[in-house]
Amino acid sequence: MRKRVAVIGGGIAGLAAAVRLGDLTPPGTEIIVYEQGGVLGGKLRTGELGGRPVERGAESFLTAGPDGAESAVVTLARHLGLGDALVHPAAVPAALAIGGRLTPVPGGTLVGVPGDLTKLGDVAHVAGADRDEGHPLLAAGDDIAVGELVRARYGDEVVDRLVDPMLGGVYAGRADRLSLEVTMPQLAATARVEHTLQAAVRAAQAARTRAAGPIFTAVDGGMSRLVAAAAAASGARISLGLPVRDLSRTAHGWRLLLGPVPAPQTDDVDAVVLAVPAKPASRLLAGISAEAAEVIGRLDYASVALAAIALPPGTPLPELSGFLVPPSEGTLVKAATFVTRKWPHLGGESGAVIVRASLGRHGEEDRLQLADEDLLLRARRELGDLIGGELPPPVASWIQRWGGGLPQYTPGHHDRVAFARQQLPAGLALAGAAFDGVGIPACVVSGERAAEDVSKSLEE
Ligand SMILES: Cc1cc2nc3c(=O)[nH]c(=O)nc-3n(C[C@H](O)[C@H](O)[C@H](O)COP(=O)(O)OP(=O)(O)OC[C@H]3O[C@@H](n4cnc5c(N)ncnc54)[C@H](O)[C@@H]3O)c2cc1C
């Protein structure tokens, strides 16, 4: 009989799952993507500013995977016919804001954790002894918060001025909470062997298979092109605007309850890929495994807002791709990208000069409770202070809010997810940033694996 598979969540993980399902399942299998929003893509959404595409969510992805080969999203983009649309940033450096001034990011660090302490200059002073105490830094199977490890070995300044802004740039979170295993897996691996942090960082750097070429890739025309191409290639039926409210087992598969409470609809399917953030995933799992639901629901999120500002043509900016700001600086701006300088495919700075600032960090949600125009004013003032000159009034601007947008993986996250997965019956697979990592490549791998899992269950 003709099989039916539902993908719940139309972000990149759900769409990667739908594409892989389209490739793996026999012709005639019906794939349905249920997305509660009015558009597909989740945190991938391209907007417009000053006549150019500007990302309202994720801006770029890693070109290479952990093995040095092309990352899963690059492979997916090529599979979707977007190989020629893959573009790279200009080779301009990034800076750190320290003491209200921009200073070059020191070289030779692993997400801010230095392997060569002589390269730190005045950015951070190392305190504390990174002594060999006769055993590895981390016991086998253990996980630790990045901040706990680095503070003990290098002191507070290295965490506050280097690691926090680097991790904050990705997670909007703090080193003192984030899991080493999830955010720096290579360092977690070498910390289980080496006796000092310096040796562990160096071993992790040496083990890294550095692919030649640019580290980051974006899509000419914007991430929404990737989203549209994936949706089209999957052959899936796309349902927009109806949240899935309940998931339950039937004798042979799964029942989805959809739509508003006064007008519920149901859909019976043979298998499900659940590709939504942790809170909705936990709610939908409640009737299937209370333990899995509880463990998944523990994942906390940070809220951020993006302020995109188009400045008049010719507005001078430093020769940088952008900068990161440590939380200790006290600003609401945690990072900024000089979009038109960083991305040459956007046509350079002949037109409006575009700056995109990222505001807010985990635990600072109340600081984002400002009207859009006040957030914009604040962003412009702080950017001007850090750049060293007041910015002119923008010619156009917008604010994009991502309430609960970025997962905060605390130590033990991988074990909790593995436990939750063990509780689930075949035919139901979890995918996305809530489970397998925040980066787009990790979300693609996660979606593809979930598709492989549920397609196997369809054959049984
Ligand atoms: C501001 C920002 C910038 C970022 N920048 C980068 C970057 O430059 N590079 C990078 O690699 N990563 C970046 N990330 C992270 C990355 O974008 C995300 O981790 C990734 O896109 C998440 O994909 P996902 O499919 O797991 O989840 P999501 O994109 O969250 O998609 C989940 C979807 O499920 C839907 N949904 C939820 N509940 C239901 C329900 N009950 N029924 C139906 N649908 C439901 C949601 O509406 C959503 O569309 C950024 C994230 C943010 C917020």
TrEMBL record:
<keyword id="KW-0274">FAD</keyword>
<dbReference type="InterPro" id="IPR002937">
    <property type="entry name" value="Amino_oxidase"/>
</dbReference>
<comment type="pathway">
    <text>Porphyrin-containing compound metabolism; protoheme biosynthesis.</text>
</comment>
<keyword id="KW-0963">Cytoplasm</keyword>
<protein>
    <recommendedName>
        <fullName>Coproporphyrinogen III oxidase</fullName>
        <ecNumber>1.3.3.15</ecNumber>
    </recommendedName>
</protein>
<keyword id="KW-0560">Oxidoreductase</keyword>
<dbReference type="InterPro" id="IPR050464">
    <property type="entry name" value="Zeta_carotene_desat/Oxidored"/>
</dbReference>
<dbReference type="Pfam" id="PF01593">
    <property type="entry name" value="Amino_oxidase"/>
</dbReference>
<dbReference type="InterPro" id="IPR036188">
    <property type="entry name" value="FAD/NAD-bd_sf"/>
</dbReference>
<keyword id="KW-0350">Heme biosynthesis</keyword>
<dbReference type="GO" id="GO:0005737">
    <property type="term" value="C:cytoplasm"/>
</dbReference>
<comment type="function">
    <text>Involved in coproporphyrin-dependent heme b biosynthesis. Catalyzes the oxidation of coproporphyrinogen III to coproporphyrin III.</text>
</comment>
<keyword id="KW-0285">Flavoprotein</keyword>
<dbReference type="InterPro" id="IPR004572">
    <property type="entry name" value="Protoporphyrinogen_oxidase"/>
</dbReference>
<comment type="similarity">
    <text>Belongs to the protoporphyrinogen/coproporphyrinogen oxidase family. Coproporphyrinogen III oxidase subfamily.</text>
</comment>
<dbReference type="GO" id="GO:0004729">
    <property type="term" value="F:oxygen-dependent protoporphyrinogen oxidase activity"/>
</dbReference>
<dbReference type="GO" id="GO:0006783">
    <property type="term" value="P:heme biosynthetic process"/>
</dbReference>
<feature type="domain" description="Amine oxidase">
    <location>
        <begin position="12"/>
        <end position="454"/>
    </location>
</feature>
